[in-house]
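## retry 2 of 3
previous attempt timed out at serialization; input unchanged, resubmitting
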Amino acid sequence: MRTMRWVWLLAGALLLAGCATEANHYDPLEPVNRKVDAFNDALDRALLDPLTRGYRAITPDPLEAMIGNVFANLGEIHTALGDFLQGKGKDGFIDLGRFVVNSTLGIFGLFDVASAMGLQKHDEDCGQALARWGWEHSTYLVLPVLGPTTARDSIDYACKTFTDPTFYVSVMGLMPTGLAPVVWTLKLFDARTKADQAIKTRRESALDPYVFTREAWRQHRRYQIYDGHPPEETNDDWADEDEFDDEE
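## retry succeeded, writing output
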């Protein structure tokens, strides 16, 4: 479902890219962002894409799905934190329940037993919480390797790290020697695999891949923040804000 939503958002961004202005209030760093975006694309073409295709070629589909389930399950704690920070207590307990059920009955998250039990998965994080607290507009950023985000949403990387059980297991030395790099490599392959369709659509359809990606990402992010019902946005929303000066 999330993959299909990305495809539709990317299609909408293709239409928006044709009428997007060169100077947007939310992208004052466009010259720098474009350079980082070009670097990321070159890195992906030269290294990440070939390695990911190799990973998928040697990994049976059921095993690939189970690896994805494990990392999705580890992310439930991060999701629950995002729920609680937005006052969505019921959703937070559901997501914690998903983590407990899948970590036990689902054998460390290999199987998504919670969904079969009717425990609905949510899509929340600390960046969305900050938006709900009032940091609604934020400067668009493209980070090396990590890709599109904003000044506000980049904070969520810290939340993801400090809510990831593997981080503490690694730091405390409880993870067998040499296993940590394997875990992070598998996580990278899993993330790249999930982004594969969006990346292909960008490369095959976009006249300006940078604008295409930016508008698709922003649409998707607003969709998340407003739980699927974002208000109409105009440049007037930014009229009284010197976003770049205030945040940096």
